[in-house]
Structure formats: structure tokens, C-alpha cells
Specification:
- The chain is an all-alpha fold and 705 residues long.
- The protein is 66% helix and 2% strand.
- The chain contains 29 helices and 6 strands.
- The strands form 3 sheets. The protein has a two-stranded antiparallel ribbon with strand order 1-6. It has a two-stranded antiparallel ribbon with strand order 2-5. A two-stranded antiparallel ribbon has the order 3-4.
- It is rod-shaped.
Length: 705
């Protein structure tokens, strides 16, 4: 079994990048698919016509009811009346006929004898017919002409204008075949108030029968255009997603049944398409999440702990939104209470700013689907925008984590951001809100900010303890001088404590110069020599004058005691459950360097002495922080041992120590580049020059030596 495992282990190590990306991606993709299934898939119902609905059914999609739209178009088209066009030619023609009649009658009467006999009137009528148009002569009887010739000339002139005006008014309104009689009646009504004899009225009515003809004709093109415009003005009948089709207890009519069939809640076939679409969405999200996990693994030296934290936080974010969605519907805005900023804060503290921003965008996209009120096809864009701003604001407001109050200060900033976004939503909407509603929504935003701070403060120690992730908060706690190990270091080995503090200051500055974790280097430097507390008197910085126990020991035994402080320190740190990063600094800060003093003494006694017996067991530094502590741990006592350190001397010692470590291969496993080593050298020299600067020699009093 062991042999088989030894064969499998190298295979897994070579392909670890696939595992750190694929397994988290599959896990998160599955969670997304399962949690969003109810949000995208619509329920189907086995319903019969004229049955009673057992529950309220809403439309899962937005779709046009084409049948209802077509019916409304037909109704609108049928409601358009036929369009007629009035012939101006016919109108002018009939008016000219009447003018022609009156002009001809008045002309003959002015030329003839007013007291003529009956025969004279008949002759004049014959003459009149010869003067008039053929259509007039053929349609108006001779008796009408004789009666007109018998009327006084003044009476004819008076009624001529009034009759023409009445006729023109009637014809301009349009006379269709079916309302000729109504036009004649209108003229009769206009003439009823004239002060003339009955015979003249009868003449005028005969003329009206002749003059009033059809002059309004059906206009096919105008009618067709009017019907077309009426059809285009009909809005399509659309069933909106989320719209109630039938309420509980309502009878399923034919119309309702057709609507249910149209939106697809009666069919099992179309219900699979949203599921397939969700599968594609989950695959896309899984891909981006896997790529992010791969990047995190590269940045964190392929540690599985940050990946575990990322998966756990992402799953937590999804479940929080899912639980919140159970209480959310279109009538409230409970998505405003979702504490997604807590996830962003934890991602920033535990992983990195970049990962927190990328994953925040991913969570915001998911929230648009999660808060759709379980109406397939809908996206809650406001929820996505609000939660995205909330998370990004938390990331930007969260500065260096110096204490837990920083999270509370971030919460205050979040309250302002939440309030600004909520007020923007309210002002941009067309709905009217009462002041009580505005304050309610603002209260939701304040609650979300406070919940985010509480969750971030509460969950941070959980990740620190159970997942073993080292955060700035944990490092700050470990740097407290009241920590048991640091207190022991101070009390039992004051010289080592002072040395550790000096190394910590120099290491932190050097780390920050090359982009490493300065706080980790500082805290690691505090504990790097904790193993010296096991045998404090064997280390020179803790010895009393003229009391060196190594004088009575052989070089090999002395070297073993000195070398053992790294393993003793690692064991002490493990016993106190210190973070792995701190333990690694304690184990690796001497790399595999040579305890040169005792080696040279042993060499004097036995030229055949093996150098390997006087080297630290290592391992060699594997991180930037450990390598920098390793360098600073060597240069600090070397410079401190100088009687009168000058700038040139410090530069020379630091340069020689770094060069010797490079040539001895002690930094081979560290990710430091030559350029970064050059920066570290300059930074360390500047720090040491500031510490070991020259001091003023104060004059002595007279008589003192």
C-alpha cells in the first residue's frame, strides 16, 4: 500500500493545479445549480377546464397572447367607420343649376309683362326651358317653371340667396344615397321661417328635390388607411412574468385555460429548457470560480487552506442569499438586509483584495437570479447592483486590519454607501414612497451593514482556528507582549528578547520593501529564537560576564545545544498551537548554515571533523518572509558586535553576509530574486544605520576619569 501511495503521490503533485481548480469549481457549480433550480424552473399543473383552482398560479414567463391581440385588432378595425369623400364638382354643379334657374326666371320676368295671361306664362315657360340646361329641363316640370314665373320678382330675389345658402350648407356636409331625404328635410326646416306664400314654398321644395343629390361617395383608400392605423395603435396583449393568471378558488374558464396553456404551466415538455440554461450558467460560474481558485493557489504557494476558505465562504454567500430569498417577494425589499459585505471583508482579510473583488462580482450576478421572486426569466437587477456596491465598498473601506475596530469603522462607511444607493433607487423609480417607507428601506440598509460587521468579527476567529489561516488580526494578537511565550522570552532570556525585537523591526521594513508580509515577518521574528528559553544560559546574549558554560563542554556538544534551539523552538510553538507560518520561521531561520565557531574549534582538535555535524538541520527558507528573517537574524548581531560601526562598515558586513548565504545555498529554496535581495540589502543597511548611529561623547566633569 505504501509503495502504491508513493507512486500516486508524485502524480498528484504534478497535477495539483488541476485539482485545486476542478474540485472547487465542481463543488460551487453544483451548489449554484441546486440552489437556483427553483428560481428558474416553473411548476406544472394538471388542471381541467371549469375546475376550481387549488392555488394561485402566476405566469413564469413574459409572452404575448397573440390570440387576444388579434381579437383586439379585429375589434379596432371593425370599429373604424367607412370613410366618404365629398365631390366638390357635384356640389358646385347643383349650386350652379339653382343659380341658373333663378337667373333665367328673373331675366324673363324683367323682359315680359307682369300682368300676363295664362298663355303668356306658358310661352315664357317654354322660353325658359329653352334657356336652361338639358338636365334641368328634363328633371323639373313645366308647372314649377310657370309657378315661379307667376311669383313677384322681389320675392324670388329674396329667397334665391337664402335657398342657395341652405343648399350649399347641406351639400358641404355630404349627401350619401341613404340620407338624401334628410338633406331635403334640413332645407325644408331652414325655409320654414321665411315670410313667403305657400306656393313659393312648394316651388322651393321642388327645387330642393332636384338639387339635393348624392355627392358623398365611399373612399376605399381612406377607409383602408384608417383601418390600418387603428390596427397599429392596438397594444399587444402581453402576459408578464409574475402576473397572476388565476387565483385560488377561481374557476378555470376557457380564457384562463388558454392563458395557462400559453405560458407553459400545463406542459411538461418546455420545462426542461430553463434547467438546461441553468446548467450552462452553473458551468460558466464554475469555470470562473475554478480559475480564481487556481490563481489563489499560485499566490499562496499551493496551500489548500485558502482554497478551502474560498469554497466555504462562497457556499456561505450562496446559502445566505438563498435563505434571504425565501422571505423576499415583489412587495418588500428584504434583499437590502443581505449581509454580503461580511463575505467580502472575510475574503479580503483571508485571501486578497483582488480575489475579493472578482468573487464579489460573481456573487452579485448570482443575486440577480436568486432574488427573482421565483419567477423564471426574471432578473432582479436592483439587488445585483446594491449587493455589488455593498461588497466593493466593504473592500475599499477595509484598510489594514490593525484591530477589530477597523471592521466597525467599515460598517459605518457601509451605512452611508447603503443609504446612498437605496435613496438613488427610490428617486429613480416612478413609484411614490411615503416617508415611513423610505425610513424602512434605510433601516434595512443599516441592518445589513451592522450584520456584516457582526458576522465578519464572529467568523474571522472561526477561520483562524478551524482552517488554520493566519490573518493580520491573529498576528496582532500574537505580537502582544503578554502572550505567554513572549512573556517567558522576556523574563528568562532578556538578551534574546532584545535581539528578537531588533530583528523584527529590520525584517518588517525589508519585507515591505519587496512586497512581502511585513507583519508576518515581525511576529515570526519575535518567536524565531523561542527555543533558547529551554537553555538560556548557553547563548551569549543571555550569559553573565565570565560565565560561559561552553568553556567546559566539547565543541560538538556545544554545537548540538546551539543547533537544537531551532527544533526546541518549533516544538514549543507546536505545543502552544501556534500558526504553521510562525513555526516555519523558527525552524528555517538558520537554514542549513554552519555553526562556524564551534566547527573551527573542533577542527583544531580533530582535523577530520565532519562539517555536516555542525550544520543546522534546516530546512532552507521557503518563503520571502522566512528568508528575510534569516538574513536579518545574521546581520543584526554582527553589526551589534562592532565597537564603532560606521556606514561603510555596516554596508560591508551586510553585503558579505548576504553573499555568503547565497554562495552557501542557504536561500536556494526561497522565492527571492537577485533584484529583491539588492533591495533588501539597501533597506537593511538603512535600518541598521538608523539603529547603530554614532552618538555624541558627553564631556566629563573636572576630576573625573
Amino acid at each position: 500500500m505504501k509503495k502504491r501511495w508513493k507512486k500516486i503521490l508524485p502524480f498528484l503533485k504534478k497535477r495539483r493545479k488541476y485539482f485545486v481548480a476542478i474540485i472547487p469549481a465542481l463543488l460551487i457549480g453544483s451548489i449554484v445549480f441546486i440552489t437556483l433550480l427553483d428560481n428558474v424552473r416553473s411548476d406544472t399543473y394538471d388542471i381541467q377546464r371549469f375546475a376550481v383552482a387549488e392555488e394561485t398560479i402566476r405566469s413564469p414567463i413574459t409572452i404575448e397572447n397573440t390570440q387576444e391581440t388579434d381579437q383586439r385588432i379585429r375589434e379596432a378595425v371593425d370599429a373604424v367607420p367607412d370613410r366618404y369623400s365629398i365631390s366638390e364638382e357635384v356640389t358646385e354643379e347643383r349650386l350652379n343649376y339653382i343659380n341658373e334657374i333663378f337667373d333665367a326666371v328673373l331675366t324673363i320676368k324683367s323682359e315680359g309683362d307682369e300682368d300676363g295671361s295664362e298663355n303668356i306664362y306658358q310661352e315664357e315657360a317654354v322660353e325658359l326651358r329653352s334657356l336652361l340646361s338639358e338636365e334641368i329641363s328634363s328633371e323639373i316640370s313645366e308647372e314649377v317653371f310657370i309657378s315661379m314665373l307667376q311669383q313677384p320678382e322681389a320675392a324670388l330675389e329674396e329667397v334665391d340667396t337664402i335657398f342657395s345658402q341652405s343648399l350649399e350648407s347641406v351639400l358641404e356636409q355630404g349627401i350619401r344615397a341613404e340620407n338624401i331625404q334628410s338633406g331635403i328635410t334640413t332645407i325644408e326646416r331652414d325655409l320654414a321661417y321665411l315670410d313667403v306664400n305657400e306656393e313659393l314654398l312648394e316651388i322651393l321644395m321642388d327645387l330642393a328635390d332636384f338639387a339635393v343629390v348624392e355627392n358623398s361617395f365611399f373612399d376605399y383608400e381612406a377607409t383602408a388607411q384608417e383601418k390600418k392605423e387603428a390596427a397599429t395603435l392596438v397594444d399587444p396583449v402581453v402576459i408578464r412574468a409574475g402576473e397572476t393568471i388565476v387565483r385560488e378558488g377561481q374557476t378555470i374558464t376557457n380564457e384562463i385555460y388558454e392563458q395557462l396553456e400559453l405560458v407553459g404551466v400545463l406542459s411538461q415538455e418546455g420545462n426542461m429548457y430553463p434547467v438546461l440554461a441553468l446548467g450552462f450558467l452553473a458551468a460558466v460560474i464554475a469555470y470562473f470560480f475554478g480559475m480564481e481558485c487556481l490563481q489563489i493557489a499560485k499566490d499562496k504557494d499551493w496551500s489548500i487552506l485558502p482554497i478551502t476558505a474560498t469554497v466555504f465562504l462562497s457556499a456561505l454567500a450562496i446559502f445566505v442569499m438563498k435563505i434571504q430569498s425565501f422571505f423576499f417577494d415583489q412587495s418588500n425589499a428584504l434583499y437590502l438586509v443581505t449581509p454580503m459585505a461580511a463575505i467580502a471583508i472575510l475574503l479580503k482579510v483571508l485571501i486578497s483584495d483582488r480575489s475579493a473583488v472578482r468573487l464579489s462580482i460573481l456573487y452579485a450576478v448570482l443575486s440577480a437570479f436568486m432574488f427573482n421572486s421565483y419567477i423564471p426569466g426574471m432578473l432582479h437587477v436592483e439587488a445585483a447592483i446594491y449587493l455589488l456596491f455593498s461588497q466593493l465598498a466593504a473592500i475599499m473601506l477595509m484598510k489594514k486590519l490593525s484591530d477589530r475596530l477597523v471592521i466597525l469603522k467599515t460598517a459605518i462607511g457601509l451605512i452611508l454607501i447603503h443609504s446612498a444607493v437605496i435613496i438613488s433607487f427610490l428617486f429613480l423609480s416612478f413609484e411614490k414612497y411615503t416617508w415611513s417607507g423610505v425610513f424602512l428601506y434605510l433601516g434595512f440598509g443599516i441592518a445589513a451593514a451592522c450584520l456584516s460587521a457582526i458576522l465578519a468579527i464572529g467568523l474571522l476567529p472561526v477561520f483562524e482556528s478551524f482552517l488554520g489561516i493566519l490573518t493580520d488580526m491573529k498576528l496582532l494578537q500574537l505580537s502582544n507582549p503578554n502572550q505567554p511565550l513572549l512573556k517567558r522570552l522576556l523574563v528568562e532570556t532578556p538578551g534574546t528578547y532584545h535581539h528578537s525585537v531588533m530583528v523584527a523591526n529590520i525584517s518588517e521594513t525589508a519585507c515591505e520593501a519587496v512586497g512581502a508580509n511585513g507583519l508576518l515577518a515581525r511576529v515570526g521574528a519575535y518567536y524565531h529564537d523561542i527555543g533558547k528559553t529551554v537553555r538560556p544560559g548557553f547563548f551569549i546574549e543571555n550569559q553573565m560576564p565570565n560565565k560561559n558554560p561552553h568553556d567546559k563542554l566539547p565543541p560538538k556538544e556545544s554545537a548540538d545545544i546551539i543547533i537544537r534551539h531551532t527544533t526546541d523552538g518549533a516544538n514549543l510553538l507546536k505545543a502552544h498551537k501556534m500558526p504553521k507560518e510562525i513555526i516555519d520561521i523558527a525552524k528555517q531561520h538558520h537554514s542549513n548554515s554552519l555553526v562556524q565557531y564551534f566547527y573551527m574549534k573542533a577542527k583544531e582538535l580533530d582535523p577530520e571533523t565532519d562539517e555536516a555535524d555542525f550544520r543546522y538541520p534546516g530546512p532552507k527558507p521557503e518563503t520571502k518572509e522566512t528568508a528575510i528573517v534569516c538574513i536579518c537574524d545574521s546581520v543584526e548581531p554582527a553589526v551589534r558586535s562592532l565597537q564603532d560601526p560606521t556606514s561603510e562598515t555596516i554596508d560591508s558586513i551586510v553585503s558579505s553576509i548576504i553573499s555568503s548565504k547565497i554562495s552557501d545555498g542557504q536561500l536556494d529554496n526561497s522565492p527571492l530574486t537577485l533584484k529583491e535581495l539588492k533591495i533588501i540589502q539597501h533597506t537593511v543597511c538603512d535600518s541598521l544605520k538608523g539603529i547603530f548611529h554614532s552618538r555624541i561623547q558627553y564631556p566629563k566633569k573636572e576630576g573625573e576619569k
